[in-house]
């Protein structure tokens, strides 16, 4: 598993933030990467020239897209990062439309991609990683239904692992729950909102948050996870700037 050169990796939501860092890291580790995003996002050539990145500008939430891309590229790794930026307001300031946006995007995308990974199915030894959020563990009172949607992503990933086990498919499904990543489009407004709620400066708030996660750290961490022996992989991890911590 240490050699990723023959393992096509689809990164769903690769245009920015953690997804972009993950796509870049897999290419630099030698993998042929398919970077799926709704908007075009040019990538630099991998630093060591080992892997490649091919962009697919599509709507990952379109129900026809997962089957089409899985059939075309026959990936052995799928990393699902795509999702909506939550509306950062207190509960009473939300509308149902803003409250439910992550259910209609993040959960739907996860469901459709994991469904197709099972239906195809992916070849034995394949890995599917769903990027959820640490908010799934402690809640997120300023982001509407975000925390619940992220918890449901974890549930769906666990259900997919159960189905794969029952069918003897040999596919490993894993959920990774990142803590604050202040350099991303989702992280920046969240950090500002929660710092203000706590009556703190952004700098002081981040200083208390522990090791901070960056797209580059997320990419390197996910490469290591996919390289790990499947027998040693647990169903879910928290991820921060120090790497992964296993969840029970």
From TrEMBL:
InterPro entries: KR_dom, NAD(P)-bd_dom_sf, SDR_fam. Residues 7-186 form the Ketoreductase domain. The keyword Coiled coil does not apply. GO terms for molecular function: oxidoreductase activity. Keywords: Oxidoreductase. SMART domains: PKS_KR. Belongs to the short-chain dehydrogenases/reductases (SDR) family. This is NAD(P)-dependent dehydrogenase, short-chain alcohol dehydrogenase family. It comes from Micromonospora halophytica.
